[in-house]
């Protein structure tokens, strides 16, 4: 059995991760690939309960340390019960956020030590890393405006704009550190153009194209 591929979608709030996850799933299925769509925090019964606790903005204040550990507790369940079994069966896993989000939100947003995140990443994931990460990037105010059209804010969405600026910077740093794995997609363009850029990247992963794609990990492309 050939192991499946692990693809993650990342980016600040409202950049279009959920919208494009559905698009990628359809595209892969058209190429006869069996896909498992999941998300973090979440993806199992227990991990979804942890997600509810993390997003609830009416509960007691969650310390930064507790938040970080809850992210990795949910992730440990998710990897053991969903991600690893699916990959071992040859399925492709499409995940809405993964550990790059921890570097961005807990590292960039909450200012937690990167070495602590790295330590937890190695403990919980072993050698598991995404094969491809699509980082949807847009100026913070665009993502916030899109996301807030939905109404009520969760615990993260209630953060200040400066928090999301730090998150965005940390994501872009991840893209600079891992240019082979993380492909930057400009998300402040019409959805059809975003999806064309995504298709270019996915085609390369599928071995359907070796051309240079319009997505680029270079920071010069942002704003
Ligand atoms: N979190 C963390 O802190 N640490 C971690 O390790 C992990 C997560 C894993 C929950 O995530 C929170 O967990 C998250 C970080 C934290 N909090 N925040 N913020 P989430 O993924 O569930 O929450 P989210 O980022 O807020 O998701 P979202 O708001 O649903 O955004 P999205 O999925 O990226 O966007 P969308 O729903 O696809 O699109 C939003 C709207 O924009 C929608 O109306 C679309 O139709 C529209 N859209 C999308 N693309 C376009 C384009 N190109 N043009 C115009 N309109 C568009």
What does this structure look like?
- With 223 residues, the chain is an alpha/beta fold.
- The chain has a single domain, classed as P-loop containing nucleotide triphosphate hydrolases (Rossmann fold), CATH 3.40.50.
- Helix content is 51%, strand content 12%.
- The chain has helices at residues 17-30, 45-55, 64-88, 99-109, 114-125, 140-148, 161-177, 191-205, and strands at 6-10, 35-39, 92-96, 132-137, 182-186.
- Strands 2-3-1-4-5 form a five-stranded parallel beta sheet, sandwiched between helices.
- The chain is globular.
- The relative contact order is 0.18.
- Mean pLDDT is 93; it is low at 213-223.
Q: Regarding quaternary structure, how should these chains be classified?
A: single chain
Name of the CATH architecture: 3-Layer(aba) Sandwich
Radius of gyration: 17 Å
Instruction: Output the number of helix runs.
Output: 8
CATH topology: Rossmann fold
Number of strands: 5
Number of structural units classed as domains: 1
Content-based structural category = alpha/beta
Helical content, roughly?
40-55%
The hetero molecules present are:
ligand Z5A
CATH class, named Alpha Beta
Strand fraction band? 5-15%
Basic shape: globular
Tell me about the largest β-sheet: 5 strands, parallel
Order of helices and strands: EHEHHEHHEHHEH
Query: What is the residue-averaged pLDDT?
Result: 93
Q: How many angstroms separate the termini?
A: 43 Å
**Strand order in space, largest sheet:** 2-3-1-4-5
Residue stretches low in confidence (pLDDT < 50, at least 5 long) are 213-223
């Amino acid at each position: 059995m050939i192991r499946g591929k692990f693809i993650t979608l990342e980016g600040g709030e409202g950049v279009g991760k959920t919208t494009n996850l559905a698009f990628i799933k359809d595209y892969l299925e058209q190429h006869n690939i069996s896909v498992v769509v999941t998300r973090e925090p979440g993806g199992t019964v227990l991990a979804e309960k942890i997600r509810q606790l993390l997003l609830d903005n009416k509960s007691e204040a969650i310390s930064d340390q507790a938040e970080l550990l809850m992210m990795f507790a949910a992730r440990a369940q998710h990897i053991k019960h969903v991600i690893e079994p699916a990959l071992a069966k040859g399925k492709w896993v499409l995940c809405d956020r993964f550990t790059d989000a921890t570097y961005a939100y807990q590292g960039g947003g909450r200012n937690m030590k990167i070495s602590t995140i790295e330590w937890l990443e190695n403990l919980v994931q072993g050698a598991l890393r995404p094969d491809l990460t699509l980082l949807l990037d847009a100026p913070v105010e665009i993502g916030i405006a899109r996301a807030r059209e939905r109404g009520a804010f969760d615990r993260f969405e209630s953060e200040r704009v400066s928090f999301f600026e730090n998150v965005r910077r940390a994501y872009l740093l991840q893209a600079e550190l891992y240019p082979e794995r993380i492909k930057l997609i400009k998300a402040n363009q019409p959805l059809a153009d975003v999806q064309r850029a995504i298709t270019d990247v996915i085609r390369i992963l599928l071995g359907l194209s070796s051309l240079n794609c319009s997505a680029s990990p270079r920071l010069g492309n942002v704003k």
